[in-house]
Amino acid sequence: MQKGSLHMHLFNVTGEPLSWTFHYKILACVGSALHYLHYEYDQKVVHRDIKASNIMLDSDFNARLGDFGLARALDKEKTSYAEAEGVLGTVGYIAPECFLTGKATQHSDIYAFGALLIEVVSSQRPRTKVNGFQFIVDYIWSLYREGRILEAVDKRLADDYDTEEATRFLMLGLACSHPIADERPKTHTIVQMLAGSVAIPHVPPFKPAFVWPAMMPIDDLSQATLINTTPHSISQYETNWGPLSRQNYSGYADQAMA
């Protein structure tokens, strides 16, 4: 991988930014790799740590998704959850439901890919404080609401980028970052959206509120209670997604332990 990591190119402040022609190439490669893991490999695999530093580039800037240290094959009996438990990964790429269930899913990989999409176009880390926002995705949502989403594009590019593609990538990033897991697009659709052959799904102007899953299997619900009753887990959840209702939390815990 002669060109090193994607992270190195995005945040090399002394060098030239990635040419816009490489933006689509890299994102398309990663999208295809994720689709392969989720649906085309012999076992369904959840990567659990998609981020710029885990994407390596060859001499032609073809991207390879690497570092499978946290990756897990999906449990054959529970096709939606990864075998390993615990909120692992990198803050900013971790989907909100992971702080509740403590388990990774294909949906949580999609969330991380959404963070990556925004990161590639903006050259801003997912956990970036800007204009009063703690995370870049919330800032992008505010720009979209105000009709100024292209202001998120890496300023180093000046006008040397495709405005239609940049808008599509940022909007897809928001769609993949939907707080409700089931609302995120699937990988096969993402590949088509990146290519522009399928329209981006409707993205609401205001970021939807995170809704706790109403129908969760009892064993998963109990495990979520054990994970989230720790002060650290509650604190981490609130850092990323705002205050957690103690009354609702207590009721949820009582239900799980019943």
Automatic annotation (TrEMBL):
<dbReference type="InterPro" id="IPR011009">
    <property type="entry name" value="Kinase-like_dom_sf"/>
</dbReference>
<dbReference type="GO" id="GO:0005524">
    <property type="term" value="F:ATP binding"/>
</dbReference>
<keyword id="KW-0808">Transferase</keyword>
<dbReference type="GO" id="GO:0004672">
    <property type="term" value="F:protein kinase activity"/>
</dbReference>
<feature type="domain" description="Protein kinase">
    <location>
        <begin position="1"/>
        <end position="181"/>
    </location>
</feature>
<dbReference type="InterPro" id="IPR008271">
    <property type="entry name" value="Ser/Thr_kinase_AS"/>
</dbReference>
<dbReference type="InterPro" id="IPR050528">
    <property type="entry name" value="L-type_Lectin-RKs"/>
</dbReference>
<dbReference type="InterPro" id="IPR000719">
    <property type="entry name" value="Prot_kinase_dom"/>
</dbReference>
<protein>
    <recommendedName>
        <fullName>Protein kinase domain-containing protein</fullName>
    </recommendedName>
</protein>
<keyword id="KW-0067">ATP-binding</keyword>
<keyword id="KW-0547">Nucleotide-binding</keyword>
<dbReference type="GO" id="GO:0005886">
    <property type="term" value="C:plasma membrane"/>
</dbReference>
<dbReference type="Pfam" id="PF00069">
    <property type="entry name" value="Pkinase"/>
</dbReference>
